[in-house]
Amino acid sequence: MDVGDYFKTDLLEGKVALVTGGGSGIGFEMARGLGTVGAKTVIASRDVERLERATEALSEQGIDAEYRRLDVRDFEAVQRTVRELVEDYGGIDILVNNAGGTFPKKAEELSPNGWRTIVDLNLSGTFYCCREVGRAMIERGRGGKIINIVIGTVATASAGIAHTGASRAGVAHLTRSLALEWARFGIQVNAIGPQYMTPGARDMYGAAVDEFIVNATPARRWARPDELAALAVVLASPMSDYVTGVSIPVDGGNWLGPGIDFRGSAVLPE
């Protein structure tokens, strides 16, 4: 399925969306979803070649798209990019903070530099973009939508990615804090938690984890790209005007954990 199969194609007509990390993976799919239903879509990341390919692919699907080179860890670059978009289009209506990264590493082997790299990218970069776009939304006075990326509900933990989990947990708390502060301005701040079920996760961790991940997920399958994009469209649209400060897992029930299956137990009545 495609996002256009779920929603009217003019749902976000006239809106401007900035999607960081929009050149590939989840970011690209969310940008495609927002653009499919009418939003002017600006994708941003550090990799210009990837951005060029992604913009071309979006344009071929009839989406009004462009790109900006941006390192979200560079606060001045974030300020400059947001200022330019406001000058060019009058404002930013939707921000998707997808830029981020991870790498597997045992906590006892994780270097300070490795820790800083992930925390700066996932947490500080998200804050910088929220701060600048949020300020612009407040000054404009028309509200707005901010969507952050976390991991599941960040209520559970995973071994080997302490740096990622800690930074994403920070993003979840940031989401709640900003939602509380900015609700009176008509700005909704929410988060999506795709857990490990993202299109790029299989490539990152290799085929060896494919069976393990699928078996550990109640839905017994990986997420489809359109399922991640569809929730982004909902949270970016007027359908979510009374929803703010929540982190919604899109992970096939992965965040629930394995649980205990009593269905075959003689203790339970038929």
Keywords summarizing the entry:
44% helix; Rossmann fold; 9 helices; disordered C terminus; 270 residues; alpha/beta
Architecture overview:
This protein has helices spanning 3-6, 25-36, 48-60, 75-89, 112-140, 162-182, 201-205, 210-216, 225-236; strands spanning 16-20, 40-45, 65-69, 94-97, 144-149, 187-193, 247-249. The protein is α/β, with parallel strands linked by helices and 270 residues long. The protein has one domain (7-256): Rossmann fold (3-Layer(aba) Sandwich), CATH 3.40.50. Strands 3-2-1-4-5-6-7 form a 7-stranded parallel beta sheet, with helices on both faces. The chain is globular and about 45 Å long. The model is unreliable at 265-270 (pLDDT under 50).
At a glance:
The chain is of the alpha/beta class and 270 residues long. Helices cover 44% and strands 13% of the residues.
